[in-house]
Description:
This is OGA GlcNAcase. The protein has one domain: TIM Barrel, CATH 3.20.20.80. About 35% of the residues lie in helices and about 5% in strands. It has five helices and four strands, in the order αβαβαββαα. A four-stranded parallel β-sheet has the order 1-2-3-4, with no helix packed on it.
Amino acid sequence: VFPSLAQAHASVANEMYQELGQPSVFLFCPTEYCSSLCSPSPSQSCYLQTIGQELLPGISVIWTGPKVVSQELSAALLEEVEGVLRRRPVIWDNLYANDYDCRRVFLGPYMGRAPGLMPRLHGLLLNPNCELQANFIAIHTLGTWFQSELGSCANPDHTGMEMVAALGDSQGPKERSYSPQEALELALCDWVAEINQQALEPGR
């Protein structure tokens, strides 16, 4: 029926999107959802070129980065993806995902994402550890990164906004740019406080 897989995908997605009344959030995950799955590259992929041309503009496209689990995300790559898809991608971030190896749990800070990515994104989804309580640092530091990115968008002269947070007895402003180490320390302080509060609850 369809001359290519991409045209089949775009046609079905478009029909579903219209049948549902063109909802404000409608996510489409392409078969080529990261650079390593594209041949020969995202910008030269016939599949992605067709998706970009045929998919209705109100449909958001998911992208994971250079790989399925990407250690780094750059503005240059997102610009390339935006060009071929004709829309800013929604990042499905697998940095903390451990469903492929549940013997590993990732407790480090959100990192490896270049400053100033926000203008290149239509959204960001974080795929966390399978263990619910192990995601405190992941979500907390993502929030700190996001706050820094918002400040960068509001103040283009800076890479981030001033964050005033309590670290011990300190009440002074922190650095303007996002610091993974600083974000980790803030998350750990809040996590310890949360653990101590839970320990005082009846029945704990």
